[in-house]
Amino acid sequence: SKEENLKSKGKWINKQRVLVFTSRGIPYKGRHLVKDLMNLMPHAKTEVKMDRKSDLLLINEICEMRSCNKCLFLVGKKGRDVYMWLSNVPHGPSVMFYVEYLNMMEELKFTGNCLKSSRPLLSFCQKFEESLHMQLIKELFIQTFGTPQYHPKSQPFVDHVFTFSIMDGKIWFRNYQIAEENGELVEIGPRFTLTVARIFSGSFGRSVMYVNPDYKSPNLVRHLQRKENSDKFVGKKA
Amino acid sequence: FRPITAPPPRINNEEAIRQKLDEIKQTKLDWVERLDVTVVMATNKENVEEPGPGIGAEFDVHNDFQRELAFYEQAKESVIIGMRKLQEAGIKTKRPDDYFAEMAKKDDHMKKVREKLVSLQRRREAME
Q1: With left for phi above 0 and alpha for psi between -120 and 50, is residue B12 left, alpha or beta?
Q2: Is A108 in contact with B10 (Cβ distance < 8 A)?
Q3: Is the pLDDT at A74 greater than 90, yes or no?
Q4: Rounded CA gap, B17 and B23, in Å?
Q5: Number of domains present in the structure of chain A
Q6: Could you tell me the pTM of the whole model?
Q7: What are phi and psi of A203, to 5 degrees?
Q8: Buried residues in B23-43 as b, exposed as e (16+ CB within 10 A)
Q9: Domain assignment of residue A179, yes or no
Q10: What is the CA radius of gyration of chain A?
Q11: Nearest CB to B33: which of A14, A181, A211?
């Protein structure tokens, strides 16, 4: 058939397999993100939710069992915060991000659409080249989010583009349909931002190579907010 | 145990990061295996001849319109570069009209999207 013809032309050499899954207690938006990523990444597999108390290093074993060399693991905390681990299994490096401003593909404001398993173009802004740790993250993104050429489950067309931009100290993700090849685009979703927290040399651990000095954990942000409010109250009373 | 308000330790081990980067780089792979494109964002371009609408000196990240436009422009530029590269590599980019395959969003979802667009338009017309 035509489909077979188009598919069986070349050899699949860039063997990337990504395990996408979450911890227990993830907010619904995190769960939807996994669903959207599974939908857009034909080279991804998923796994049952992992117990929150288990050692993160266990993930390396799970990845090995599922023969995955990349892992995208979402952690939910306090029922509202979402963190994302991105790791090169088994030798590292791995990055921990804080995830914010999540919009899912299901939302009706995104009017674009693409093939379920076509390969995306990966667009980066020049700022990724300005520091070493961002270069490392860019390399991890290319290997994780890009669909390998001739992957058996992929479609041989390029009809959408993943955009990674650095702005306001965060990495912003967008996904657009390529409506016309002259660059007319329609957004497909999902949307999210990632703030780098730490970069580790190993997969889910070992030594810390980078700490983002501008990253404030959501707990700290809430703590400061509460303190500010209480100071206001004390000031009023005095 | 570190108190929550203590400043984070300053760690940026560039030596180790460079080593890891060299370790994982896919130097032997052609571009068509990776499909990455890097462009300068309009907001960071110095002396932009024709800045797009809303992209000027006073760019505001909290302004949804300006921000999304900046992302759109980045994606657009990347697509133009990427498509040219794909065509040079002899890779088909356009799906033939008679090629059917499963879409990321199902038909019933797209129907909802269209219905919403229509209702928005109707509301706009009613306003006028």
Answers
A1: beta
A2: no
A3: yes
A4: 10
A5: 1
A6: 0.90
A7: -85, 115
A8: eeeeeeeeebbbbbbbbebbb
A9: no
A10: 19
A11: A14
> A163 in a domain, yes or no?
no
A37 belongs to a structural domain: yes
Model confidence over A9-35: pLDDT tens digits? 688 999 999 999 999 999 999 999 999
Angle in degrees, CA B112, B117, B123, rounded to 5: 125
The pairs formed by B59-62 with CB atoms below 8 angstroms and a separation of 24 or more are B61/A167, B61/A168
Q: What is the CATH number of the domain that holds A219?
A: 3.40.50
Confidence of residue B74 (pLDDT cuts 50, 70, 90): very high
Are A154 and A118 a contacting pair, CB within 8 Å?
A: yes
CB-based contact A157 B95, cutoff 8 Å: yes
Q: Do B44 and A125 touch (CB under 8 A)?
A: yes
**A171 at the B interface (CB within 8 A)?**
no
Question: What is the rounded CA–CA span in Å between residue A194 and residue A84?
Answer: 8
Which residue's entry shows tokens 């058996």?
A152
The whole domain housing A100 covers 14-108+127-152+192-237
Residue A233 resides in a domain: yes
Contacts of B78 in chain A (CB under 8 A): 121, 123, 161, 163
CB-based burial label for A111 (10 Å; 0-12, 13-18, 19+): middle
- CB contact under 8 Å between B38 and A149, yes or no, is no
| Structural domain spans, chain B | 14-97
Contact criterion met (CB < 8 Å) for B95 and A159:
yes
Instruction: Indicate the average pLDDT of chain B.
Output: 85
Are residues B9 and A215 in contact, defined by beta-carbon separation less than 8 angstroms? no
Using an 8 Å Cβ cutoff, are A199 and A207 in contact?
no
